[in-house]
Amino acid sequence: MTSTFSRRTLLKLGLLSGAGLVASDFAYASLKDRTESLITAEPFQRPLQIPPVLNPVRSDATTDYYELTLQRSSLPYFSNQATETWSYNGMVPGPIIRQVGGPDPEVRRQSIVRVTNNLDRDDRGELIQTVLHLHGMGALAQYDGYATDFVAPNQSKDYHYPNDRAGTLWYHDHVMDLTARNVNMGLAGFYIVEDPREAELNLPTGDYDIPLLIQRKQFSKKGGFLLNRAKSDPDLEGEYTLVNGIPLPYFKVEPRKYRFRLLNASPVRHFQIAVSRSRNRLTSNEPLTVIGSDGGLLSEPVTLANSAQQPLPLGIGERYDVIIDFSRYAPGDEVYLHRVLNTVDTAGQVRARAEFQRIMRFDVNESAALETVDNDLPIQLRTIEPLATLANADNLTQRTFVFNREKTGDRRWTINEQVFDTERIDAEIKSGSVEIWTLINPLDDVTHPVHLHLVEGQLLERNGQPPRPYERGLKDVFVLGPEETLRVAFRFDSQALEQVAGIFMMHCHQLIHEDRGMMGQFKVIA
Ligand code: C2O
Ligand code: CU
How far apart are CA 220 and CA 224, in angstroms? Predict the structure, then answer.
């Protein structure tokens, strides 16, 4: 990686989108990945860790009860140097909650997650509040993690979840104005809802179903996490790519298919994923097969035959479940996940020679099993009924939201020229209705991953073109790139909840944008 990016190019790529985080990008622009400079030994020396699955503290006929405790923990990130983190149950990322669920009420279990805040005060002496949001779950408003619905130090709150959507969800802190800091400090983890009917699809499971929580995090020179400090902070050292909390890990794989559940839990950075046979190059014709997105399985697998040319965008907050088939490679081969930095066009293609950073390495071993089970992928994964079509759009309520920035003053981030106000409702919506929302980004230098709580949506159009094949499932994050216009259908209900009513947030999931104004709220009316 030798070439350098101009600021303009980085802006175009949407990589400089975070206010106050620019200094680290300059340091980074030479493309010498600073993740590697913090590790005294060679990169890819530490094995990938899979966060443990959290056992319920008790279960009854319908419900499993879980406990998440926020605490300070000191964990070795780089060179065995201890780094102060804020963790759930002492680990970063938090433990994985795996629950049984899906549309069938006979099958699904309820969850009650008790969050206890054992944090105290931050370095400015302020109490560290928390809010838990389970991203992707349709929960009643009082359990949804509204930004000011705080759990203060020494307090607990029970959050109830119906688990009616099977998919790769995640939980994270959502405190008003400080979400970027709190997520960067460690407050995020997977929550996976599995529909037992998926077993019929013969997808890779168990040791071959691996969640990968990918983050670019801000660290200070001393190895600690950066806490929202000014860009002039002399301690600011830069950004690092972590997978399940480990910088640039390796993972031993058998020559077979694996399912990876990819989540971008970065506070402010977008990813685009490619597979490569080389540490130093993007090799061509390395396929990546997408089987699921934010809201669970796609209707059919989508193979990106040349992932260097057509990387899989993984915007902040987005999830994609992918299959990588390591039987294409020989024992002893090294296969890499790289982060493609170029901007992609409406069709998802890279036009120029791709630039990248490394994410992790897979080491292909001999197969442990005598007979390798092959997971032949089914042609169809599930049926997804369209929420709406553009042809019948005129019969539905339509709304337009413009994601922009104040031109003067604090230059806060705005939706329809307004910053978040807890007292203002931005849309009143009838429970159960379907609406078509047009999302517009007039700026040419930032990307906004737009997220609505409660609902799942379906992309109908990207810049007047049909959505890319992997964007056609149910999603809750819509990556709105520079100068892009998206049209998205949403249905404002949750099938497990009797009647949804209440106030829910919508926002940009670039957490600095969210913390600095780019959030609104809609009221669902019974
Ligand atoms: Cu993942 Cu409102 O957030
Ligand atoms: Cu944004």
Answer: 5
